[in-house]
Amino acid sequence: MKVALISAWHVHTKKFMARLLAKNVECVYVWDFDEARGQQAAHDYQATFEADYRVILTDEQIDAVIVEAPTTMHKELIILAAQAKKHIFSEKVLALTTQDCLEIEQAIRANDVKFMISLESLANNAYHYALQLVHEGVLGEVTSAYFRRSHGAVIQNHLPSYWFDVSQSGGGVTLDLGSHGFTLLPLICGKPQSVSCIMNEKWGSGVDERSTTVIEFTSGAIGTATTSFLASTLDNYLEIIGTQGSLQIVGNEHEPQAIFIQSNVKAEYQRKTLISSEGISKLTDYPIELFVDLVNNSDKKEFPYYDLEAAKTLTRLVECAYESARTGQTVIY
């Protein structure tokens, strides 16, 4: 499998490329609007830097593009790749508006190329365990769910300055870290119905630095996604409340996670129990690793959880959150 890296802009690029290259994938080209960054990435991955994106797309040996470019560039870059019959891996979020997502989808469908969006929270096996409990009815009917992801990007200066340039990123913490909650909550609670969001900026970063988004689902469940660039460390917390039980998962993907469960339908969990996280609290394949399998599998068109529907749902929730915060109104999904 031969790929082209389309910008090394995203802060996940090095981590994802390391996993990609470990799958016996060759990076042939790097394109970047920042030539110095692109040249460095080309050196790192033993690739050729090419300043003309269309030249890369005309090379028949290229199977796929890895889009790690600014969010605001996604639409143009992805549509051109689809038209050139290249398979596409895209960082989250896919685009800033639902309309842009629909145009991207049309190009992908019309040209019969494969697509995957990076939703790396789903590489955390503990969250798949939570989804399994929900689907098996161990917690009863889900009535509410809460997810928090936070770190200290604004107060600790561990991200590049362009990360806070809305003309590139398209948004702040709600778009960035908020995407994790917006990915998980619909999988737990079902189809979103309405969205309300409060966000603010107090440290002068130029973007929203903390936010809380409340989502009402058609099931009646209420989900909450809270996120912040103003925390002391990377932190995750998931809580699911159901009519027959509850679940809490504490900790992020880089540390041992504490998993608490209470269930009226499981005799061993009648009281809240801290269960062993061995075999549960671990990382599974990252989306970019699954993408290699997707491209190499001639029979598979999409991968569950990482397909265009997931990408459109995420973009719509981000879009609704910013509209709600801007207008002070609840927005219909």
Summarize the topology.
Blueprint: E1 2-6, H1 13-21, E2 26-31, H2 35-44, E3 48-49, H3 53-57, E4 64-67, H4 74-83, E5 87-90, H5 98-111, E6 115-117, H6 125-136, E7 142-150, H7 153-156, H8 166-169, H9 178-189, E8 192-200, E9 210-217, E10 222-228, E11 235-242, E12 245-250, E13 258-263, E14 273-275, H10 287-296, H11 308-327, E15 331-332
Parallel strand pairs: 1-2, 1-4, 2-3, 4-5, 5-6, 7-10
Antiparallel strand pairs: 7-11, 8-9, 8-15, 9-10, 11-12, 12-13, 13-14
Helix pairs in contact: 4-5, 5-11, 9-11
Structure description:
The protein has 333 residues and is α/β, with parallel strands linked by helices. The protein is built from 11 helices and 15 strands. It has helices at residues 13-21, 35-44, 53-57, 74-83, 98-111, 125-136, 153-156, 166-169, 178-189, 287-296, 308-327; strands at 2-6, 26-31, 48-49, 64-67, 87-90, 115-117, 142-150, 192-200, 210-217, 222-228, 235-242, 245-250, 258-263, 273-275, 331-332. The strands form 2 sheets. Strands 14-13-12-11-7-10-9-8-15 form a 9-stranded mixed beta sheet. Helix 5 packs antiparallel against helix 11. The longest helix is centred in the C-terminal third of the chain and has 20 residues, at 308-327. The chain is globular and about 60 Å long. The model has no long low-confidence stretch (mean pLDDT 96).
